[in-house]
Amino acid sequence: MTEDEIIAWLTRLRAPIRREGVLSRDEVAEATTAYLGNASALFEEALLLCAQGKVARAAALTVLGLEELAKVPLLVNTFLRYEHGQDADAWKSLWKSGGSHKSKQALILAYGQIIRSQFDGDPMFERRLYRHYASDAVLESLDSFKQTSLYVDLRQDGVHKPASDNETRHALDYLLVFGQERADSFGTWHVSQRRGADFLEVALGRKAVRAWTHHYGIPEVRSDILYQAAAMSASHVPDYSSFLDFAESYRKKVSEKHFKEALLSLAALLGSRVELAESLPLYCSRYIGTFKLIFSLSEQQKIVGASFGRKLKEALSPNLAAGPK
User: Fold this and answer.
1) How far apart are CA 148 and CA 16, in angstroms?
2) DSSP output for 231-286
3) Residue ranges of the domains in the chain?
């Protein structure tokens, strides 16, 4: 591009941000898939930055990822309240306050709390969807933490600049694993627009839960397996038995090609997470557990076959030093 073309592109008029109207089912499904994809990318980029020692920038991206992820339940809840006739002003309320960082931060920090009491018990063996939860106190400081991780501030006690110190690293570790757990669980329903539409149909009572979707492409299959592996490794001892039972049953309803390709892709993803998170003990520990469940699957000839089992193990093998012993 020439300099004039670059300037023209930078200064072109863009469509205004939408601030009114009612979204259709397909528009909501498209948006939630985009929100999830962007949030997941922000978490991935935060992990890469942290591995390069850019802890402050990684922390800021993580908070941005949390805010982006919060748009998923925010939009879904608005759509359902309106469609069920519970709130005729649901869309007006969203357009009026949906852009608030504070409201998005509050929503994602609270996400999962409602199910926590159902799984409280022995933390060593109890299956939980999430291992990490945020307290109300975190919300009061989250936006400030994001801003101080990006900008230099002039304060009463002097100049404050973004810091990559141990305290910031620990905070990053806590927030990143918190957000990653939730992004992994959202994937089953929102990884694709087709899945998002199916999810909304179930929520509206138009589809039965038992046959909620017929879409099992590689991205959907990978998300389904990741969801189960993450949920079944939320306790300190991964639930190998339940995960292998799931894998054996799930394998029968999806194509062999998609099942195997999804596993290889997941092996690369989890291996990368473990490798990059060396300086983040909470995150690393959380995904070593998930990694171990996928590794256990590589040894199940009845489910994956001997040849593919070896291939999956080879895909995981560069990371075995951090993973299963």
Assistant:
1) 29
2) HTTSSSS--HHHHHHHHHHHHTTS-HHHHHHHHHHHHHHHHHHHHHTTT-HHHHHH
3) 20-215, 216-325
Is there a contact between 274 and 47 (Cβ–Cβ < 8 Å)? no
CA distance 91 to 21: 7
Residue 123 pLDDT: 45
pLDDT for 269 beyond 90:
yes
Distance from CA of residue 283 to its chain's centroid? Answer: 13
Helix axes 218-231 and 166-190, enclosed angle (nearest 10): 130
Q: Are 291 and 274 in contact (CB under 8 A)?
A: yes
Express each pLDDT in 64-78 by its tens digit: 999 999 899 899 999
Taking alpha carbons only, the member of 26, 28, 17, 18 closest to residue 78 is 28
Instruction: Please tell me the distance from the alpha carbon of residue 39 to that of residue 68, in angstroms, as a whole number.
Output: 5
Contacts of 12 (CB under 8 A, 6+ apart): none
Question: In this predicted model, what pLDDT tens digit does every residue of 226-240 receive, in sequence order?
Answer: 999 999 998 888 999
Give the model's pLDDT for residue 132.
Answer: 78
Residue 31 is encoded by which pair of tokens?
A: 């948006």
Could you tell me the pTM of the whole model?
Answer: 0.89
Closest by Cα among 134, 63, 76 to 102? 63
Residue written as tokens 């003990």?
281
Please tell me the distance from the alpha carbon of residue 188 to that of residue 193, in angstroms, as a whole number.
11
Mean pLDDT, rounded, for 114-129: 51
Residue 253 identity (one-letter amino acid): K
122: helix, coil or strand? coil
> What is the tens place of the pLDDT at every residue in 158-216?
999 998 999 999 999 999 999 999 999 999 999 999 999 999 999 999 988 888 999 99
Instruction: Report, in angstroms and rounded to the nearest whole number, the Rg of the chain calculated over CA atoms.
Output: 21
Side-chain-side CA neighbours of 202 within 13 Å: the count stands at 15
Q: Which two tokens stand for residue 117?
A: 């009491």
Residue pair 291/316 in contact (Cβ under 8 Å)? The answer is: yes
Give the distance from CA 136 to its chain's centroid: 21
For tokens 């020692």, the residue is 53
Give the pLDDT confidence score for residue 107 in this predicted structure.
63
Residue 289 one-letter amino acid: G
